[in-house]
Structure formats: structure tokens, C-alpha cells
Amino acid sequence: MTSDLRVSMLQMTSGNRHAANQVTVDEAAHRAAADGCDLLALPEAAGLMNKDKEDARRQITTEAEDPFLLTCRGLAAKYGLWIQPGSTPVKAADGRYLNHGTLIDPSGAIVARYDKVHLFDVFLEGRKPTGESDRYAPGTEAVLVDTPWGPWGLSICYDLRFPHLYRDYAKAGATVLFIPSAFTVPTGRAHWEVLLRARAIENGAYVVAAAQVGDHEDGRTTWGHSLIIDPWGEVVADLGGDAPGQISVTLDIARVAAARQQIPSLENERDYTFTRIGAHETTPA
Ligand SMILES: O=C(O)CNC(=O)[C@H](CS)NC(=O)CCC(=O)C(=O)O
């Protein structure tokens, strides 16, 4: 297994048309290649951030026709880069709309596909319900993909709050967990970094979480703070909350095994019985 993985992470303010987002990624891939990177990681909704369902659906195509993914595939091949395009909306053959993650290899081939499993249907104080499942159908498959740097686990944004997904990836040997996101500002402030660091620590894996930032054309504002976290839980890159940006860092994949050797919590797991003591069974004082 190759130990050094040089990653470039892009923090974006994606717009509600594909074309401008493609220009942003074109420049980012050029920079990643100039920095000697193996991999470029993008945020959730990198190719199209558009909460207007009708307007979005006029633009969303199948994966094969998607202009953003075609651009990413061309850039991967041009620069010999792996690209994790975060996610972008696509239409499935059966007509369902999906929040669609992929992994593209340096030949430009899509080698893995992951559709967001846990959709963001929450009720934040003082806000309209987010209703992501009104716009997308949920995926039903966890996807781990073998690479020269070990297996990588795919996920998207709100999946972060479902730790068993990452534990399943880690038990199967995942070295890197991708969590591309478009977090809200209030939940980002309160939960983002602590949840990401927890996923890295409890799984002894690198976490690569490229994020959307700032004020978007579709009216949303996102938290930013794209983070890369090492298997010991230390933040190795943070792009801040103010503006788009890009950072290139070298990850040492051998540190995954080192963390899991020191704290073998994945192996120390045990089965247990579950007992509930009901109030009706207690003896009154
Ligand atoms: O649909 C798009 O265009 C892009 N996708 C999103 O913005 C998604 C669904 S609305 N956002 C999240 O999952 C935020 C999760 C979050 O903020 C939390 O868990 O606290």
C-alpha cells in the first residue's frame, strides 16, 4: 500500500448553474496538479447548488450526461488526478433524483458511486423545514472503494450524524472517510468540528470533509470550515468560514494502522445484552 497521499481540498460557494461551478473546479484541478497532488476533494453539491426544485430539475441530467461530472472526468484524465467530486444532483434511469457522490480515477473513469443515504429532513428553530427528501430519493448502499492507499469510504454531509456508517467502513479497513458537506451555519457552529473529529477518532481514520461556504445564489448560507482530520483526531487542515479556498496536504496512511494499534477499539468491541428497567417494575418507596 502506498503511504503518502497528497490531497488538495477545495472549499466552494457553488452557484445555481453548472457552468460557473465547472470553471471553479477547472482552476482547482490545475492548482492541485501544480501542487503535486494525487487527489482533489470537492464539497457536497459542488456541481449544482439549487434549492429551487423546478429550476434545478430543468438542469439535472443522468450521470452520463451531467456536464459537471464530464468536466471532472476530463480534468482527472488531463492531470492524472483522482477526483472525489463531493456530490452533485443526478437523475437515475428510473426517474428518481439523487444527491450523487462518485470517485473518479486518473483515467477519468467513475470507479465508485454513492447516493446520499440520510437525507436532511430537520426542523431547526426559527427556520423552514429543510425537507431534502422532497427533492431527492435516498440511497440504500454504503460504498467502500479500494485504492492504492487502502479502501476509502464515501458519504455525504448529514450522513455524518450516523456513526454506524463510518464504523462499518472502518471495520472493513477504510483508511480515508469522505464527508463532503454543505452545513448550515447554526449546526456548523455547534456540531461540525466535534462530529468530524469524533468520526476520525472512533474509527482511527483520516476524515476529508470539503465544504460549501458563504452566501449562495440560491439564497442559502453555509458554514465552510472544510477540514482534514488525522486518525488521532487532530485537525491537519481548516479552510475557515469566510471564503472559498484550497489547501494541499500530504497524509501519511501508515498513521491509520498506528492509531488502530494503540487504541484497537474496533477489535475490542463486544456484544452485550440490553436490559430496560421499567418504572412500573420499581417498588414504590
Ligand atoms: O441539496 C443541495 O443542494 C445540497 N445539499 C444540502 O445542502 C444538504 C441537504 S439540504 N445539507 C445538509 O445535509 C446539511 C446538514 C447539516 O447542516 C447538519 O447535519 O447539521
UniProtKB/TrEMBL annotation:
<dbReference type="InterPro" id="IPR045254">
    <property type="entry name" value="Nit1/2_C-N_Hydrolase"/>
</dbReference>
<dbReference type="Pfam" id="PF00795">
    <property type="entry name" value="CN_hydrolase"/>
</dbReference>
<dbReference type="GO" id="GO:0016811">
    <property type="term" value="F:hydrolase activity, acting on carbon-nitrogen (but not peptide) bonds, in linear amides"/>
</dbReference>
<comment type="similarity">
    <text>Belongs to the carbon-nitrogen hydrolase superfamily. NIT1/NIT2 family.</text>
</comment>
<feature type="domain" description="CN hydrolase">
    <location>
        <begin position="5"/>
        <end position="253"/>
    </location>
</feature>
<protein>
    <submittedName>
        <fullName>Carbon-nitrogen hydrolase family protein</fullName>
    </submittedName>
</protein>
<dbReference type="InterPro" id="IPR036526">
    <property type="entry name" value="C-N_Hydrolase_sf"/>
</dbReference>
<dbReference type="InterPro" id="IPR001110">
    <property type="entry name" value="UPF0012_CS"/>
</dbReference>
<dbReference type="InterPro" id="IPR003010">
    <property type="entry name" value="C-N_Hydrolase"/>
</dbReference>
<keyword id="KW-0378">Hydrolase</keyword>
